[in-house]
Amino acid sequence: MTTVNGRPEGAEPATIRARTRAIRLGVVIPLVIVSGLLLAVYAFNLLYFNSALTGPGPNACDPAVDGFGACWRPEQRTFWIVTAAVSLPAAICLGMSLIWLGSTRRWWPWPVATALLLLAGGLALNQVP
């Protein structure tokens, strides 16, 4: 079937304008660079502070002698788990930001979610040591 103008009936494919693509690239490229570096730092810190999961160990720490920041605290385990649990979805959202970059559908929730998850992971990671 054709319309009155002689064009085929049906939905026309949507295209992304050049300005919109430039805005998307301007948002996603810095996000990928910053997020990639932050995720690498989070991974290193999670491996470095892996002892937060195992507990104080055989040598007990005296906060009066060693300082309160040097001693193992039970809440460190919680912050480590929160950081690990937030970093994986942040990496997934970062990948989805790249996948949906060329799509005509909504793309902006993925970079926003990536930034918010990385912020939450950073706040939790600052509480581990």
From TrEMBL:
- Record protein name field: Uncharacterized protein
Q: Which organism is it from?
A: Micromonospora chersina
**Membrane-crossing residues?**
25-49, 79-100, 107-125
Whether Membrane counts among this entry's keywords is: yes
Give the source's domain of life in one word.
Bacteria
Q: Top-down, what is the taxonomic lineage of the species of origin?
A: Bacteria, Bacillati, Actinomycetota, Actinomycetes, Micromonosporales
User: Which keywords does this chain's UniProt record carry?
Assistant: Membrane, Transmembrane, Transmembrane helix
